[in-house]
Amino acid sequence: MRTPLLFLLLWAGFASASVAQSAPGPVVGEVFLARELDRPPKLLEPRTWYYPADSLSKSVTVHAGFVVDTSGLVEPGSIKLKSPIDSTLADAARRTIIATQYRPGSFHGLAVRVLMDEKLVFHSQPKHCVPSADSPGFRSCVKP
Question: The pTM is what?
């Protein structure tokens, strides 16, 4: 009687281990869209904006796509600017995006990489700006 019981216990343990290993979950490196998530990424603090040292003649809207990683940081190589802008403002937009930190997005409770699509509006007369210590040629501004 012990042998069938032992066999049954071993088989039950094997079956439950197989089920646990085949449970669906995010694939390492996979990139999700925000609408697919339980909890999309969220800006953690006011964004620091980088502006060219020279003032803009008018406000400019920049559409950008980028990936937020599992720690809430932007992957610099993933940034794609979708608006036709000059190289100085493009550099300012990239610096602004890279300096932004998010609470990571999650899928079934696990932090995942997320493709973001955002609209950045650079104003012609930004407030709360100082010359940037870490980026010569730029001003850094925090919008309250």
Answer: 0.76
Tens digit of each residue's pLDDT, the chain (144 residues) = 444 444 433 344 443 333 334 445 566 678 999 999 999 999 998 889 999 988 888 999 999 999 999 999 999 999 999 988 889 999 999 999 999 999 999 999 999 999 999 999 999 888 888 888 888 889 998 874
92-95, Cβ contacts within 8 angstroms, sequence gap of 24 or more: 92/49, 92/50, 92/51, 92/52, 92/122, 92/138, 93/62, 93/64, 93/120, 93/122, 95/50, 95/135, 95/138
- Spatial CA neighbour of 39 closest among 97, 119, 103: 103
What residues have CB less than 8 Å from 70, skipping those under 6 apart?
A: 104, 111, 112, 113
Residue 102 and residue 66 in contact, taking contact as beta carbons nearer than 8 Å: no
Cα separation values, 99 from 25, 33, 133, Å: 30, 21, 14
Structure tokens at 66: 């980028």
- The answer to whether the beta carbons of residues 58 and 124 sit under 8 Å apart is yes
Q: Which residue has the tokens 């012990």?
A: 2
